[in-house]
Amino acid sequence: MSKQEQHWEKSKGLLMMTLAIWFVFSIGIFLFGAEMNEVTGPFGYPLTYWFTCQGSLGIFVLLIFWFANRQEKIDEEFGFSEKGDD
Amino acid sequence: MIKGNFIDNLPKVYGIYTGGFLAFIIIMSIAEQMGMTAKTIGICFVAFTVAIYAIIGYLSRTAQADAYYVAGRQVPTVFNGMATAADWMSGASFVAMAGGIYFKGYGYMALLVGWTGGYVLVASLLAPYLRKFGCYTVPDFIGTRYGGNLSRFMAVVVLTVASFTYVTAQINATGTIASVALDIPFQYAVYVGLVSILLCSMLGGMRGVTWTQVAQYIVLIIAYLLPVFWISNKMGAGFFPHFMLADEVARIGELEQQFGFVANTKESLAMVPKGLAGITKAHSAVNATPWAFISLALAMMMGTASLPHVMMRYFTTPSVKAARKSVGWSLFFIFLLYSSAPMLATLSKLSLIDPSLPTGIIGKSIAEVQAIDWYQNWNQANLMFVSDFNGNGTLELNEFFMGGKAVVLATPEIAGLPYVISGLVAAGGMAAAMSTADGLILAIANAISHDVYYKIIDPKAETAKRLVVARVLLVVIGFAGATIAALEIQGILGSVIWAFDFAMSGLFFPLVLGVWWKRANKEGAIAGMALGLISGAAYLVWVRTGGSGFLGITQLTFGIFGSAVSLVSMVVVSLMTSEPSAATQRMVDEVRVPAGRSIIGKQ
């Protein structure tokens, strides 16, 4: 397998992981919205309510930064990262 | 100021700007103490901020295609994040979102999840790859990846349908705010709004829009957060509302139990002015089925990843790596406002319905409520209404009605904040609507001038001529949008959601598969765009004209149907026709590698 193919395989792996986490917090948990709302979540808000106000939103922010860092590492590993600063 | 080392000086420039704006707020509040009228304060706020944007727009003027179309590809990640956040958060987010949460609770909050979760798709599936491509516009990517004028043209059609649906709502919002703040009729105010919008974008194109959007973000976020924190502190609800409103949320639940949701008769509701609603849904309880919630969130997420005015912001970063990070910053800046909207809705609702608070009106006598100053003001503005349906003389929960905009616009006054805050909120709403309208009009005008005029009609046109065409189109599209906005045929929020559905119906899969599926070819992409858009639009018309719909897909989520048709037709047609040329496949391989020159720069 060429270097480029390996790089793409790893990138696809990272994509799948990112989309899996995204799926859980944008769709998965809301299948159980009513049940989860009985539980008290962070700061004392009902759990599902908290996810819709802050939880899922905040997780998405962190997820994107995490993804960007991981992808940069993959690019560097294969020598595909751009020269210069960002 | 914009010359030489401008990019290096950005933090300083915008730091001074923010300080200046805060000083302006303080000066205005002193002026209020000294007896300046509410009307003058409103005019000062809107006129001062719009004048600043116009100056930035003028200083950013350019005669270069690269600067005009992609701001010279040198916008740093954090600033591009702010610009995207302003581009993204429209008049609807600013003025209507807290109201939607106030009235509809959980079912509406699918929009919060959808409008943020979409950025994960943008960051992981599209933005870095399109940045590597080096295109000027989204149809530029489609046209180069798939080849042929027809695919390029179809992409322009989808872009125009989606963005134009969106932009009329934004011009409408600038008109509404300008008409209130400047006290002129709406029909004229729409054009005042339009001129302000064009001042930012006409001379500098994307460069002008970028630097005004950063300035607009700063105004709108201050205008949103300051009242939320102030009200929360004044009510004694907690100095940092986001972490401290659990008791208030629980208290609303208690009051809902105590009052009950009494259904009004048809005859009673007929007396309520159009556009106003009562509290009929639980505040924090789950009040929608899982599919209703998930389908709306999903439609908004896929729509986010297909809207060209957002995507093109990531063409302006210096590198692919910066494009990825910049998506993260965009969402962070959006998060600041979105996570505050539910808090504002909570504070607003509790202050109105809790009888133990001095501002609470439920349980008071109708005559007493009708005598309150702020009630009279907002009743006159057609945003509040009470009526004694059961004739017992006291105001019940089901007898109090309010417009969605009132949550943002009236809560500061109800909570007893000085008028200067209301002026600030008007300036914030204006900034939100203007920045989004700018991005949208520019997206349409750039697609038509670059993809239709330069790439299809006259590929030999000189830069100067191309930029003249781009600017003429900007004005024409702006006026077309304003003319339709002046007719006031659609509500702000409904048409915003439709724009997402149109975009995802026609563009989501052609864009994503263009990067992630090498086998996708021209015929498939054309089929995907055309059939997706047509079937989505047909479904919308069908449901609007009394059709029952299927699978619980409503007029707000018709993009789910459209994009499914788009995916199937794109895959089937691609597989039935020959695979893309070796050159195209090599191009896709190169897009997947961040290093090296951009694809279009090479040609």
Descriptive account of the structure:
The complex is a heterodimer of chains A (86) and B (603). Chain A is mainly alpha-helical. Chain A has one domain (3-77). Chain A contains three helices and no strands. In chain A, helix 1 (3-26) runs antiparallel to helix 3. The longest helix of chain A is centred in the C-terminal third of the chain and has 31 residues, at 47-77. Chain B is an all-alpha fold. Chain B has 27 helices and three strands. Chain B has helices at residues 10-33, 38-59, 65-70, 77-88, 91-104, 106-133, 138-146, 149-182, 186-201, 205-234, 241-244, 246-259, 266-270, 290-304, 308-311, 320-338, 341-353, 366-370, 373-380, 406-414, 419-457, 463-487, 492-516, 522-544, 558-576, 582-591, 599-602; strands at 276-277, 384-386, 400-403. A three-stranded antiparallel sheet of chain B has the order 1-3-2. The longest helix of chain B has 39 residues, at 419-457. The chains are: A mainly alpha (86), B mainly alpha (603). The interface between A and B is large, with 48 and 56 residues.
Label the structural class of chain A: mainly alpha
Strand order of the largest sheet of chain B: 1-3-2
End-to-end separation of chain B in angstroms reads: 35 Å
Rg of chain A, alpha carbons: 18 Å
Q: Radius of gyration of chain B over alpha carbons?
A: 24 Å
What fraction of the residues of chain A are assigned to beta strands by DSSP? Answer: under 5%
Average pLDDT score of chain A? 88
Care to count the β-strands of chain A? 0
Number of helices of chain A: 3
What gross morphology of chain B would you assign?
globular
List low-confidence stretches of chain A: none
Helix content of chain B: over 70%
The class by helix and strand makeup of chain B works out as: mainly alpha
Number of domains of chain A: 1
